[in-house]
Amino acid sequence: MANNTNPVVWFEIPAKDIMRAKQFYEGAFNFSMTLNEMGSMKMAWFPWIDKAPGTTGSLVESAGYQPSHAGTTIYFSVSDIDGALLKIEQNGGKTLNKKTSIGQYGFIAHFEDTEGNRLALHAMN
User: What is this structure's pTM?
Assistant: First the structure.
């Protein structure tokens, strides 16, 4: 691992329909995503704020990328989990696990996006 860096620097979330997935994430989280193509891969990049904590990644529509509830879980940082779950549902997603305390580390919830991926939310309040 490189010195002086966090170990995770990029993530990719599979999409069956890149435009539907992009519309879901933009509506649910109130940000804009950038469309890109890299060979046969269609991508929608999440926003990046230079020198801010966290990482960024992309939605990816390509052969070999299959939405799933299994495997890695990506957590989105939000200030209000209940409000975020409401926006997720209004934009075509589903709540899988409602807001749950994880003690001194805040709260989490799990949701399913429009593509069939299981993802999560984290908030300190």
Answer: 0.93
